[in-house]
Specification:
By secondary structure, the chain is mainly beta. It has no helices and seven strands. The chain has a six-stranded antiparallel β-barrel.
Length: about 100
């Protein structure tokens, strides 16, 4: 029996774990708002953890709380969503637009 080969991450962009609070505002006609936390960030997008029910294809304004007084906002497009049953929150993969 041969040992398992080391499976490498085939992603072309390195993800950086960054857990900061975020405020979310959907740009859809319903304008859903809520809070969440970033999980990891790349130069192209972000993985979020939230209870805000966003749909694939929605555009969302994400305000990152970098410090108590500094917030930076970016618009992103929801690429995928997945329910995290461990903590009853939704993981949302977004790419910046």
């Amino acid at each position: 029996m041969q040992p398992k080969k080391n499976v490498s991450d085939k992603r072309r962009i390195r993800r950086v774990p960054v857990r900061v609070p975020v405020a979310l505002h959907s740009r859809s006609t319903f304008g859903k708002k809520g809070d969440g936390v970033s999980v990891d960030v790349t130069s192209y997008g972000v993985l979020l953890e939230t209870t805000v029910p966003l749909a694939v294809g929605e555009d969302v304004e994400i305000a990152f709380g970098l410090t108590n007084s500094i917030r930076r906002s970016m618009t992103a497009h929801v690429a995928w969503t997945s329910m995290d049953d461990r903590n009853k929150k939704t993981l949302i993969g977004c790419y910046f637009v």
